[in-house]
Amino acid sequence: LAIVCFTNFLEHVRQEIKMKKMCTIERMTYVKMFAQRLLVRKSKTAASQLQNAALLDEVTQNPTIARAVTVMVASARMKKKLREARSCAKLVFVALNSWSVGGRAMVRIRGLVPRAIRLQRWWRRCAERLHSQLERVERRWERS
User: How confident is the model over 30-36, as a mean pLDDT?
Assistant: First the structure.
Protein backbone atom coordinates (compact mmCIF):
# COMPACT_ATOMS: atom_id res chain seq x y z
CA LEU A 1 0.00 0.00 0.00
CA ALA A 2 2.85 2.37 0.82
CA ILE A 3 4.41 1.79 -2.60
CA VAL A 4 1.13 2.54 -4.38
CA CYS A 5 0.64 5.74 -2.36
CA PHE A 6 4.23 6.84 -2.96
CA THR A 7 3.94 6.12 -6.69
CA ASN A 8 0.71 8.11 -6.87
CA PHE A 9 2.36 10.98 -4.98
CA LEU A 10 5.35 11.00 -7.37
CA GLU A 11 3.03 11.01 -10.39
CA HIS A 12 1.13 13.91 -8.86
CA VAL A 13 4.36 15.89 -8.30
CA ARG A 14 5.59 15.07 -11.81
CA GLN A 15 2.38 16.39 -13.37
CA GLU A 16 2.47 19.55 -11.27
CA ILE A 17 6.09 20.27 -12.18
CA LYS A 18 5.38 19.57 -15.84
CA MET A 19 2.47 22.04 -15.84
CA LYS A 20 4.48 24.75 -14.06
CA LYS A 21 7.18 24.54 -16.74
CA MET A 22 4.68 25.01 -19.58
CA CYS A 23 3.87 28.37 -21.06
CA THR A 24 0.27 29.58 -20.76
CA ILE A 25 -0.90 28.43 -24.19
CA GLU A 26 0.64 24.99 -23.80
CA ARG A 27 -0.91 24.68 -20.34
CA MET A 28 -4.36 25.54 -21.70
CA THR A 29 -4.17 22.96 -24.47
CA TYR A 30 -2.78 20.37 -22.07
CA VAL A 31 -5.61 20.98 -19.60
CA LYS A 32 -8.21 20.73 -22.36
CA MET A 33 -6.79 17.47 -23.67
CA PHE A 34 -6.25 15.73 -20.32
CA ALA A 35 -8.80 17.41 -18.04
CA GLN A 36 -10.41 14.15 -16.89
CA ARG A 37 -7.27 12.30 -15.91
CA LEU A 38 -5.31 15.16 -14.37
CA LEU A 39 -4.16 14.39 -10.87
CA VAL A 40 -3.02 17.95 -10.43
CA ARG A 41 -6.56 19.32 -10.32
CA LYS A 42 -6.86 18.02 -6.78
CA SER A 43 -4.02 20.15 -5.36
CA LYS A 44 -4.59 23.70 -4.12
CA THR A 45 -1.90 25.35 -6.23
CA ALA A 46 -2.87 23.51 -9.38
CA ALA A 47 -6.56 24.24 -8.93
CA SER A 48 -5.85 27.97 -9.13
CA GLN A 49 -3.63 27.36 -12.17
CA LEU A 50 -6.42 25.45 -13.87
CA GLN A 51 -8.90 28.25 -13.12
CA ASN A 52 -6.45 30.82 -14.48
CA ALA A 53 -5.92 28.70 -17.59
CA ALA A 54 -9.67 28.49 -18.17
CA LEU A 55 -10.03 32.23 -17.67
CA LEU A 56 -7.16 32.96 -20.06
CA ASP A 57 -8.72 30.63 -22.60
CA GLU A 58 -11.97 32.60 -22.39
CA VAL A 59 -10.06 35.87 -22.78
CA THR A 60 -8.15 34.67 -25.82
CA GLN A 61 -11.34 33.43 -27.48
CA ASN A 62 -13.25 36.71 -27.06
CA PRO A 63 -11.62 39.43 -29.21
CA THR A 64 -13.28 42.30 -27.33
CA ILE A 65 -11.98 41.15 -23.97
CA ALA A 66 -8.57 40.33 -25.44
CA ARG A 67 -8.33 43.85 -26.91
CA ALA A 68 -9.35 45.40 -23.60
CA VAL A 69 -6.79 43.33 -21.70
CA THR A 70 -4.10 44.30 -24.21
CA VAL A 71 -4.93 47.98 -23.78
CA MET A 72 -4.90 47.66 -19.99
CA VAL A 73 -1.52 45.91 -20.03
CA ALA A 74 -0.04 48.54 -22.36
CA SER A 75 -1.44 51.31 -20.17
CA ALA A 76 0.02 49.74 -17.03
CA ARG A 77 3.41 49.37 -18.69
CA MET A 78 3.36 52.98 -19.85
CA LYS A 79 2.42 54.23 -16.38
CA LYS A 80 5.23 52.19 -14.85
CA LYS A 81 7.78 53.58 -17.32
CA LEU A 82 6.51 57.10 -16.69
CA ARG A 83 6.81 56.64 -12.91
CA GLU A 84 10.36 55.34 -13.30
CA ALA A 85 11.34 58.19 -15.61
CA ARG A 86 9.90 60.79 -13.24
CA SER A 87 11.69 59.19 -10.33
CA CYS A 88 15.02 59.27 -12.18
CA ALA A 89 14.45 62.87 -13.26
CA LYS A 90 13.66 63.86 -9.68
CA LEU A 91 16.89 62.26 -8.47
CA VAL A 92 18.93 64.16 -11.07
CA PHE A 93 17.16 67.43 -10.25
CA VAL A 94 17.79 67.04 -6.50
CA ALA A 95 21.44 66.15 -7.14
CA LEU A 96 21.98 69.16 -9.40
CA ASN A 97 20.27 71.54 -7.00
CA SER A 98 22.35 70.25 -4.11
CA TRP A 99 25.53 71.34 -5.87
CA SER A 100 26.28 74.85 -4.71
CA VAL A 101 26.77 77.00 -7.82
CA GLY A 102 27.44 74.68 -10.74
CA GLY A 103 24.33 72.56 -10.28
CA ARG A 104 21.98 75.51 -10.10
CA ALA A 105 23.62 77.02 -13.15
CA MET A 106 23.16 73.73 -15.03
CA VAL A 107 19.46 73.67 -14.11
CA ARG A 108 19.04 77.27 -15.33
CA ILE A 109 20.87 76.54 -18.60
CA ARG A 110 18.75 73.44 -19.08
CA GLY A 111 15.66 75.64 -18.79
CA LEU A 112 16.97 77.90 -21.57
CA VAL A 113 16.86 75.21 -24.23
CA PRO A 114 13.04 74.97 -24.53
CA ARG A 115 12.81 78.77 -24.60
CA ALA A 116 15.42 78.94 -27.36
CA ILE A 117 13.56 76.31 -29.39
CA ARG A 118 10.30 78.24 -28.99
CA LEU A 119 12.06 81.46 -30.09
CA GLN A 120 13.52 79.71 -33.15
CA ARG A 121 10.11 78.37 -34.17
CA TRP A 122 8.59 81.83 -33.76
CA TRP A 123 11.36 83.37 -35.87
CA ARG A 124 10.93 80.80 -38.65
CA ARG A 125 7.22 81.62 -38.88
CA CYS A 126 7.90 85.35 -38.86
CA ALA A 127 10.73 85.02 -41.37
CA GLU A 128 8.43 83.26 -43.85
CA ARG A 129 5.84 86.00 -43.49
CA LEU A 130 8.46 88.75 -43.77
CA HIS A 131 9.98 87.09 -46.81
CA SER A 132 6.61 86.99 -48.59
CA GLN A 133 5.99 90.66 -47.73
CA LEU A 134 9.47 91.57 -49.03
CA GLU A 135 8.75 89.80 -52.32
CA ARG A 136 5.46 91.73 -52.71
CA VAL A 137 7.21 95.05 -52.10
CA GLU A 138 9.98 94.12 -54.58
CA ARG A 139 7.40 93.29 -57.24
CA ARG A 140 5.70 96.64 -56.64
CA TRP A 141 8.96 98.50 -57.07
CA GLU A 142 9.80 96.55 -60.23
CA ARG A 143 6.49 97.56 -61.84
CA SER A 144 6.94 101.23 -61.23
Answer: 69
